[in-house]
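Posting for a labmate who doesn't have an account.
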Amino acid sequence: MKDLEQNKNVLLFAKKNYIILLISIALIALSFILMAGATNDVPTEFNEDIYSFRRIHLAPTVFFIGIGVAIYAIFKKDNTPMKDNQ
């Protein structure tokens, strides 16, 4: 019973993992911001900004880097030894 109560207070990841995970969320959000824009006010005209470098190459690259950082944050192991509260 005592072990069950101790496990309730233990976080799944270390503080550093959560910080890295927040950075990855920020990178993913930045990629969506980079993809946004290029509205066309006149529907009969073609807008070349849809195929800009930022939307075609930069935004997906930042997105996949953010996903990679999130995977790293999940798999990163904390090297500090756990303290027993006995």
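Reply:
Got it, the structure tokens are right above this. The chain has three helices and no strands.
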